[in-house]
Amino acid sequence: MNFKKKYGWQIYLAATFILFGIMLSIQTQTQNRLASELAYQSTADLTIMLKNLSDKRHLLNAEITEAEQRLEEYQQDYADDTRMIEYVNNEIKRLDILTGQASVAGPGIKIILQKENLLYSDVVGLINELWNSGAEAVAINNIRIIDTTAIGFLDALNTTYLTCDKEILEAPYTITAIGNSNILEKGLTMPGGIVDNLEFFKIYPEITIEEEILIPALAEKKVLRYAAVPAKEEQNT
Fold it and tell me: What is the pLDDT of residue 3?
């Protein structure tokens, strides 16, 4: 918000009051001078002078009314800008959380997985179930997961490594998720759900409910090299 927008109505009001004071001073001096000369004026002259004074009073009242209206408009504009700035700031914070640009804290659950018999697809299934159950932020081994995160594997030296965005993860693997703890847990442990399926392959996730979990922001911002918002005319085609 620039200086003119923020303080314009105050400057306008101050200038109006100064003008109002000058006009009152002039009107008072005029009335005093007229009072000393009333004895020398005719009835017709007095009538004209009274009308002029009345016209000036109405004009002054109109100026004051206009100034009050301008003040109300400036105050309304200022209030609207304040609400707009507050809305924009809240929206930026929300988008920063969704895109992983900001670290977040809150209640949720923690899942610990051992390496034995575990496939990367099992981890992907667990994370997807967390999203489906309303998780607002997820991480694995303290690495933030967003919609473009790639969970995969790497074979090297006769060993398979779990990876997150091509970064090798060390076992045991810890998945943390922020959201409604009860709903998140039930989403994983419902009969016939993903935990039941993992146990069939002798994979036993350790699930605990946490009062507060801290999930860090992305280590690096995602750079978009190809995706861009199309021009308005292209959106309508």
Answer: 44
The pTM of the whole model exceeds 0.85:
no
- Classified as helix, coil or strand, 11 is helix
- Which of 145, 114, 104 has its CA nearest to residue 127? 145
Amino acid at the residue 86: E
187-229 pLDDT tens trace: 999 999 999 999 999 999 999 999 999 999 988 877 778 888 7
Q: Are 177 and 137 in contact (CB under 8 A)?
A: yes
Give Cβ neighbours of residue 134 (< 8 Å, ≥ 6 apart): 179, 180, 183, 184, 187
Return the pLDDT at 88.
Answer: 73
Beginning with the edge strand found earlier in the chain, give each strand of the sheet holding 159-164 in spatial order. 151-156, 159-164, 167-168
Residues 6+ apart with CB under 8 A from 148: 222
Instruction: Decide: 174 and 112 in contact? Cβ < 8 Å.
Output: yes
Radius of gyration of the chain (CA): 36
Q: SS in 3 state form for 120-162?
A: HHHHHHHHHHHHHCCCCEEEECCEEECCCCCEEEEEECCEEEE
Rounded CA separation 202/118 (Å): 9
